Every structure is written in structure tokens, then in C-alpha cells.
Amino acid sequence: MFCPECGNQLDNDMLFCPECGTKVEQVSAKDADSPILAKGILFTHIPRLARKLSVSPQDITSLLESFIRLKAEQGFLYRLADAGAESKGLFSRRRSLAQDAPWHEYADLLKQIHDEETRKQEEPSTFLFIIGGEDIIPMPAIPHYLGDEACDADKKIDTDLLYAYPYGPRMNDAICSGQLFFYDALFYVGRLPLATDAVFQDLAGYLQRVIENPVVTVDTGYGQCDPHWKKVTAKVTSRIRGEELLPDYHPIPEELSYDRLFLTPEVDPKVIGQVFNPDAQLLFFNLHGGAAKETSYFLGQSVKDEEDWRIAIFPAVVAACRQPNVIVTEACYGARFIGFDKAHSMLLSAMAANTLIYLGASRVAYGKPDPRDPNSPVQMSNADILTGEFVNHMLDGFPAGAALFEARRCLHQASEIGPVESTTLVEFNLFGDPTLFIMLPQTEKAAAPAAKSNIGTLCSPTTESCKLERVSIPTEEAPRPMSLLAQVRAQVDANIAEIQSKISEQLYKEWGISPRKPVCMSRTTSLNGQKGYEVQYDLDDRKKAPEGFYNRLSVSSDMNGRIRSVRVTK
484-492, long-range: CB within 8 Å, 24+ apart, which pairs? Predict the structure, then answer.
């Protein structure tokens, strides 16, 4: 809340501004007809946001305070936190945070609000809605868990998860070691990103759509995937089909669809207009995404011709959606937005149109391929579990922010957390108002979020020694002549070669992948203390994948070379 006279930031319970003495009219959800369903913080940097959108700070303040007032009437009580406020009152003094200030200085403001609410014995705010992109409120970037093995050129993962843990700079080390997952999260986090070419109407339009749609009615869905993952995607989206949200598209040629999911490259820009449903309110994409500047689209690769890559879906298609909607994607870089305009980002195009909630990865995402043997069970991992559980929890009535938290918890419970799993936990970010939830009209099913949300730790604490760690394994031949050290190295290399051979044999037998030299190999200790190996292979032997797209296989094994998990890049 801000003083209407001088703009000084105020506590919600202040009756007079300590800076200029102006009387303050209180805005309270208690006066509304609806009960308080959730409390949260609207977090931004008003001066910076105003400069970006070429309006005055008062324009931004008025817009956000109107949004807060209307949300309160719907039972969602937000309070405004401005990282750009300069307080010079009698009781406090604070300077506007610089753009290059570390993330934890921004998070300190959130912790202060939480501590103040706790001190006053109020119900604490559990939802955090960040307004603006990286240039308004910085998005933390952490070292990649795969280190030099990562596909990413800059070896960083962009994540808003750290804002859920505003415990100071020590969280930098905690998230890198995996110990962050044992701390209590304070907030469910969502962000409204703004493109490099954003205008004031992009912000105002989104907030208006949120007010008009506090509950997103979902009666129709749409799904599209790479044919290598059609069975896995069918399992991930089984709840969507179970709720009868995917229409029966007969008569559709069999090669275009599988279990009501559309397949690419069979569905490409030539026919996408014939099958895409712009009135769908829940859209799921399990396709390839890329990092290159111009590759804003998602791709599919043919199972018949590995050199046949085609565009599956592109920004103009999602921007044409006519209904308020939720988009979930497993694609690598599916939620890239930093430094992009709307035309070059699926996320930004969608959010500037009718998308209210978007879940996607900031970096390279991994999931399961379909089993080679048609009689083998279909399994899920990483992005499959996370996105599938997010959808399931939203269909159960969880608000979006809580649905992502619970999806992360499900992944933690279902998996041995190593480098790839830790990457998945932090790289998937939520975009949009985290208090939004969905409703199924055919069953009139909508569970309102509880005032006391079930937030806390993602997993039970373990011993301090069970940390995520990587040790690179040399693969080159031992030097000669054979000194004692060289003999030890030769023995190590022989053991590694034997393990690689065992892994290659299993990959060929169970997955039909011909033997090949690993790109890299590391020894790992997972969060539950199990030791093993992480091995990466390049599936793109002929280098036919488009620029910025990765086609890698990641294998997790035990110390004897027995495969635990096989995943592919999305």
C-alpha cells in the first residue's frame, strides 16, 4: 500500500503516512462478500516498470492498487511490495534496489513482510506474484547441476524457486547442493514476464483478464507431441483424457494422432490450422524446444526418418487462442523469455494474448522416450512427472502456485534426486498469477484454495553428508611409460570402460540404441546418498537437428553399471 499524497510505502495497518501525515483509507478484503481464500505479495519495482512501459510511476501504482482492490473483492488479499520505493520516514529508511543487486536483497523485502505478519500473529502471505521480467525483478541464475556436461552455452539455470526461500545469500549454496529442498518454502511463486517490446496494455490487459477469470473454466483441451514420446505423453495426459477434455477428432488420419494427441512432424505448419483448437483452455505440448535466437517454435522429429524435423507449433498459433487458457510444455527452453520480444518467445506471445498460466522450462528438459518393446510398461521421469502432476493438481482444484509446489514434491518422492532431477526441480517456472485455479464445468468441480496452504519442505531432511556432488571421470588412455600413478589410472579407466560397455549393452538390448562413445561421464552422489554414474550420449549422429536444438540421451546407473533411468532431451 502507498500514500496517495507522497507515494511513500505503507504498512497495511497504518492510518496515517509517517512521511507526510496524510490520512490513509484502508482497503480490506474483510469488507468484501467473499471470505479470504489466500494472502499474497505483489512484488515489483515501480520506477523501473514505469520507465520500461513509458508511463508514470503513478500510472503503475494506480493500476496495481486497482488490481489489489478487485482481487480482494474476490477473496484474494494481495499487498504491494515495491523494490523501487525510497523510504525516508521517521521509522525507517531504505533506498531503491539497483538492477544489479543480488536476488537475496530483493528477497529480504519479502522476508520482512513475512516476519511482520508473523509478529502480528496474522495469517502469513503464501503467494508471491512477481510483476515484470528479469529487467524489473532479477531472476536468479545458478550453476547448472550437470556442470560442463550441460548443453547450455552459459551453464546457468534461470529459476524463481529461490524467491520461495528468502533466507539470505546462504541459499545460493543450498540450492547448488540440493539442501534447499529440505528448507521450509515460504511462498508459492509466479511471475508475469514482460517482453522487450512490451507496452503498458500488455500489463493492464493481463491483470484485467485475471480479474475477469479468477477461475479458468476448462471444458476443452489440446495435446501435441513428438511421436517418439506418444505413449509417454498419453500417460502424462491421462487425467486430461479421463476428464473427457480431449475431443474425439474422427475422421483424422491415423498417422496424425495417437490417443487424441496430435503428432509432429505429421502435423506441421501446412496442416496445423486444420487441427489446432483455438478455443481450448488447457494445452499440453511435449515437443522439442531450442535455444537459438530465431527458433521460437517447438519441433517434432519423425520416427521414420531421423533427418525429418518439422515445426510443430509457433508463437502466432498460441497467440491466436480465443479463450482464457493454461499452457503446459515439456520442451527444452519452453519458457525462455529473458531478452526476447513477443514474436520470438512462445511464453511471451501466449501471455500477451489469452494465456493466464504457463508452465515451462528455462533450460534443457529431460523426460522418458517410449519403450522399444511394445509389451514393456510405459514409464515417466523428470519433466513427464512434473508437468503431469502439475496438471493433475490443477484439475483437483489447487491454485497454480500450489500445484507446482506439489508437482515438485511428487517428483522428489518418485525419483532418486541426482543432477538431472535437481535441474528439473528448479528449471520449471510458473508464469502468471499463482492464485489462479481451474474449474471443470461438466462436473461443476472446483476446489477453492484453503487459507492455510500446505507449504513447507519438498522432502524430509536427510543427513548432512547426503549432498549432490559431481566428480568428473577421465576417459582418455593412460599415459606411458606405466608409472605407479599411471597404473592406478589405467585400472580406473579399465573399470570405467567396463561400466560403459555394460551400459551400452543394456541400451542396445532394451532401447535399440547402437553403441557409441559417451559425450561425458560423471560419478554422482544423490540426495539420498546413493552413488552412481551419469552418462550422456549424443543421439544426433548426423548432426541434422536444427541449430539450438539438442538430441541427447542421459543415463543414470549404479556403481556396477546397471541402468536406473534413461531420459532424452525435450
Answer: none
> In angstroms, rounded to a whole number, what is the distance separating the alpha carbons of residues 506 and 503?
5
* Beta-bridge mates of residue 538: 552
428: phi then psi, degrees, rounded to nearest 5: -80, 120
The Cα–Cα gap between 329 and 123 comes to 34
Secondary structure class of 137 (helix, strand, coil)? coil
User: Does pLDDT of 153 surpass 90?
Assistant: no
Per-residue pLDDT reduced to its tens digit, 203-241? 999 999 999 999 999 999 999 999 999 999 999 999 999
Can you tell me the distance from the alpha carbon of 311 to that of 510, in angstroms, rounded to the nearest whole number? 30
Which helix (H) or strand (E) segment holds residue 411: the answer is: helix 400-414
Decide: residue 222, CB within 10 A, 0-12 exposed, 13-18 middle, 19+ buried.
buried
Query: The C-alpha cell of 495 is what?
Result: 573399470
Q: What are phi and psi of 566, to 5 degrees?
A: -125, 130
Between CA 429 and CA 427 the distance in angstroms is: 6
CB 170 within 8 A of CB 438: no
Dihedral sign computed on CA atoms, order 390, 392, 398, 400: positive
Residue 124 has pLDDT above 80, yes or no: yes
Cα 530 to Cα 208: distance, rounded to the nearest angstrom: 49
pLDDT tens by residue, 415-433: 888 889 999 999 999 999 9
User: HSE-up of 569 (CA within 13 Å, CB side)?
Assistant: 27
Query: Who's near 478: CB < 8 A, 6+ residues apart?
Result: 486, 487, 489, 490, 493
Kindly report the pTM of this predicted structure: 0.88
Question: With contact defined as beta carbons under 8 Å apart, do 493 and 442 qualify?
Answer: no
Range 360-387 burial, b when 16+ CB lie within 10 A, else e: bbbbbbbbbbbbeeeeeebbbbbbbbbb
pLDDT number for residue 513: 85
Cell of 282: 488447457
| Segment holding 543, helix H or strand E | none
Nearby residues of 434 by Cβ (< 8 Å), 6 or more positions away: 40, 127, 128, 129, 188, 189, 190, 399, 400, 401, 402, 404
Q: For the chain, which residues make up each domain, given as ranges?
A: 29-190, 216-439, 469-569
pLDDT at 16 over 70: no
CATH number of 216-439: 3.40.50.1460
Give the separation between CA 259 and CA 291, rounded to whole angstroms. Answer: 30
Q: How confident is the model at residue 88 (pLDDT cuts 50, 70, 90)?
A: low
**Residue ranges in 141-271 assigned as alpha helix (H):** 170-177, 200-212, 230-236, 238-242
Give the total residue count for the chain: 570
- Name 55's Cβ contacts closer than 8 Å, sequence gap at least 6: 200
Q: Which three cell numbers stand for residue 319?
A: 497467440
